[in-house]
């Protein structure tokens, strides 16, 4: 693949991922997720209880461009596009290590590797309860018991299928 095609594929992938971001940012396995900056309505670097309570209304008001108390199709599309653009900008800021305005496959892979490394490290630290740098059979079984409890005793972590 030519360098130009690689950049094009990277940009298309970034846009596709960013397009999904607003939906993913709004709901997740544990309910709504929002950016800190969106909830900090007065931009003081802190989120008060009132700001947390007024967040939904502020988002509505921001999207209601003509202030008629309704969100038209065009207003919803414009608000969604603004969120996607902001998501793309954040993604470029985080992942575009060579600052060429595009995310290459190598940059995307490096970011995924960093996330996997952080996840594996956190998981290992949780399992290694005595902090000795190794997971004993007892620590492994304790974790397996916890996971089985979360999954209703089904197959999964630390359990044979046979």
From TrEMBL:
Keywords: Signal. Residues 1-25 form the signal peptide. InterPro entries: EF-hand-dom_pair, EF_Hand_1_Ca_BS, EF_hand_dom. SMART domains: EFh (SM00054). GO terms for molecular function: calcium ion binding. The keyword Disulfide bond does not apply. Residues 115-150 form the EF-hand domain. It holds the Pfam family EF-hand_7. It comes from the Bacteria. This is Calcium-binding protein. It comes from Rhodophyticola porphyridii.
